[in-house]
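Narrative of activities, Objective 1.

The group set out to show that a structural description can be obtained from nothing but a protein's sequence at a throughput compatible with the screening campaign. Below is one input-output pair from the validation batch, recorded exactly as produced.
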Amino acid sequence: MKSKIFSAFFAILAIVALTAFSAIASAETSLILTKVTGATTSNPNQDVTITFTLNNTGFENVDQTSLDWSMSNTNIGTWRSLPTLTTINADELRTLSAVLNIPRFSSGSVSAMLKVVSAQGKSAELLIPITITEAPSITAVKTRELTFLQSGILNITNTGNTPLNSIELTSAGDFTATLSDNSLNLNPGFSETITITSLESLSSLSFGTNTATITARDTSKNVQSTASFSLMKTFCSNGAVGRNLSITNVEFDSDGDEEDEWRPLDLITIEVEVENIGDDDVDDVFVELGLFDNTGRNMVDDLNFENTNEEEIDVGRLNDGDEETVEFKFRVPADLDNGNYKLAVKTYSDDDGESNVCADTSGDLDNNFYHAISVEKEDDEGKFIAFEDIELSPTEVSCGDTANLRMDVFNVGDEDQDQVKVNLVNRDLNIDMSREIRDDLDQGDSEKIEFAFTVPEVKDGTYTLMLNSEYDFSRDTYRESSEREERILLKVIGCSLGGSPTQNEDFASVSASLDSDAIAGEELMVKVLITNLQNTEEPFIISANDFESWAELDSISERIVNIGAGDTEEITIKLMVNKDASDEESFSVEIRSGDNIETKEVSVSLDKAGVKSFDFGDNSLIWIIGAINLILIILIIVVAIRVARR
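Output recorded for this entry:
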């Protein structure tokens, strides 16, 4: 019995000893790597950070030293950084990290191995699987610009990690680009060079930058990339050519707030200096202005020029070394559309031809071959209504004359107007008149307005007519009025305020003659010759009177005329004869100068079919004798013919 008990005790003791020995042996070999965090998938061209723990479960408190991580490996990519830990104490747990780089064009599955070996011969491994996601990509890069003298070059690269087997190339834009190849197949990381040309002529392009966009697209992978090529169209029809002419200076001036921000009716002045910098003379040199909208259309004809040659000025001949400055002056039309414009200028030889000699660039233009201009509606409420094309007719009048003032009324503001009132005032002439525009005046709209008034008996002199407007109409009230009044000058001469004119035949000689047939129902024209018998130049006022019962006054060619001492001026008076006018009618021609007046009575004999007689003033006797002689000659011819026939 004792033997059995001893045997059992011995067996238990052996088992305990064996277990302890096994645990000690295991602890001696236990460097353990355990993953904590880290992505299981990755895009190409990406760094993946792996966080893990290293545990030293060593036996009898054995430290692990000279830790070596260099045996870590991967089938795809590289370990960008590994731990730098060289010692781990017994029973110590450390948290570490490593960075794995996934290459740009790689694909598939990554098997990355972290491995550490100590000087004590202990080691540990950690397998890290990562799946690389599919990331198709394509890039189109312009490597050489397209010009009319050289082709453009485009580089197409598969920048993804999957093959692209159905790449299509297309072109769209302001001009047609021709491609050396329209379809490609590219493996990851591979490139192809495409040549870009254009068959467009310069004349077919719009002014400014003309762009064609090339698109490389693989629809099966849903990827694409674009690149743009540009062709420049400057103001010269065939581009800048020749080396003789140069634009040496361009200066801008505006009566508005900004030189390159125009408001409706701003007065713009542009001075352009051109020079012949060549060795040869250049004939028929012109300087021309252009204004292009965002579609490339030249809108210069819409400008209201005040210089006589408008957008094109003839400089003439420029010898070598000569320079010339020209001036363009214009008002911005009130109805010019808002937006961005390109102001351009060129100089060329009409003799050599613009295609051979032309310059259109200058350092004074902010974009070398054009100057950027913006046009905006007026946002100042006090300047919403403006007047343009103001015409006063006549500009010189005498007392009793009727004057007409015509104008275009523009809404240059950024608000529509339901109703606008225009006022004309001059207290000295007893003028206080108004006209209303009731049919809306929206932004950019215009309406013609006319005032007619009779000049009262006033002193000779120049009178200022004041023109203004009222608007923002609501509830029978105009809530806004223009800040600035337009001033129009009217010259009044030949009035005799304070006395009556004196009949004086010594100040002028007056004669009248028929200048048309005198027929009832038709126009009658009378030519009046006025000779100034005074020693100084004087103004003469011409009037027609006492015709109202049988005719209407159509016009007097010059109502007021200045005649030099001893000079003669011809005036034409047109009367429209009534159809029922009698055979004998008369009217008077009145000539006034200062306090002097002369009246010439004219008698007219009318016929339903033609002229019977006319009073030709001082030449009446001569004309009557001539008419009698003509009748006698006709009678003699008739008698002679009859005698000859017998």
